[in-house]
From TrEMBL:
This is Pseudouridine synthase. It comes from Simiduia curdlanivorans. Keywords: Isomerase, RNA-binding. Belongs to the pseudouridine synthase RsuA family. InterPro entries: PsdUridine_s_RsuA/RluB/E/F_cat, PsdUridine_synth_cat_dom_sf, PsdUridine_synth_RsuA/RluA, PsdUridine_synth_RsuA/RluB/E/F, PsdUridine_synth_RsuA/RluB_CS, RsuA_PseudoU_synthase, S4_RNA-bd, S4_RNA-bd_sf. The keyword Isomerase applies. CDD domains: PseudoU_synth_RsuA. It catalyses: uridine(516) in 16S rRNA = pseudouridine(516) in 16S rRNA. One of its GO terms (molecular function) is isomerase activity. Residues 6-64 form the RNA-binding S4 domain. Responsible for synthesis of pseudouridine from uracil-516 in 16S ribosomal RNA.
């Protein structure tokens, strides 16, 4: 998703229909404020969440939204779907239609889903180069062996994409329940990794994305906004 940013003079031309010269005059008078600071240059960038005040008039004061949702099984990670309930359908808020997903979960998977109106934030969490770690709890139909754990740590070859997966960490809670920590999100990656060794994934539950941990007090289908601290720590 593209970042919605524009030069100050262009932004004011769109909003107030004023010229570049008129913007310079307002700057000279000290009548333009961006996020509470007096603007000094017509080339300063204005984002979709920048507070813009001109001559005491608030032109823009839109707040970004950051949501965590406990996704139930059988809900689609999409903004619209003609057949199934979507994660957006679960969010009873006037800004719900403005949200987009920060990564997805399969139809039958459960756990943490992040949604936001902030495209820059979502890119920082999902860009492959960022390598943000995702934590899943997986239940299996049979236990995995130390050899499989070593194979995960080395990386597995996926012929369809002609790639080798990044190293994956594992931790065991019991013989048929394993925590998986990975830094990418290939199509059905976890199911395919276990399927490579003829092991079936019975359930898959996401516990964390980066430093954002699923709130243990959220029941399936419930959501809440992230705190400022959670948003800040998520991209450290």
């Amino acid at each position: 998703m593209r970042s919605k940013r524009d030069r100050l003079d262009r932004h004011l031309k769109k909003v107030l229909s004023i010229s570049r010269v008129e913007t310079q005059q307002l700057l000279a008078k000290g009548e333009i404020f961006l996020d509470g600071q007096r603007a000094t240059d017509i080339q300063q960038l204005v984002g979709e969440f920048t507070q813009v005040v001109v001559a005491g008039r608030v032109l823009q004061n839109k707040l970004p939204r950051y949501i965590q949702l406990h996704k139930p099984q059988g809900v689609v990670s999409a903004t619209r779907d003609d057949k199934h309930q979507t994660v957006i359908d679960l969010i009873a808020a006037d800004f719900a239609e403005q949200l987009h997903l920060v990564g997805r979960l399969d139809f039958n998977s459960t756990g943490l889903v992040l949604l936001t109106t902030d495209g820059r934030w979502s890119r920082r969490l999902t860009e492959p180069a960022a390598g943000v770690e995702k934590h899943y709890r997986v239940t299996l139909d049979k236990p995995i062996t130390p050899e499989i754990v070593e194979a995960f740590e080395r990386g597995l070859y996926f012929s369809f994409e002609n790639i080798i997966t990044r190293p994956v960490r594992t931790a065991f809670t019991d013989p048929l329940c394993v925590d998986i920590f990975l830094h990418e999100g290939r199509y059905h990656q976890i199911k395919r990794m276990f399927g490579h060794f003829q092991i079936t994934v019975l359930s898959l539950h996401r516990l964390a994305i980066g430093n954002v941990v699923l709130d243990s007090e959220l029941a399936e289908g419930e959501w809440r906004e992230l705190s400022q601290d959670e948003v800040f720590r998520s991209v450290i």
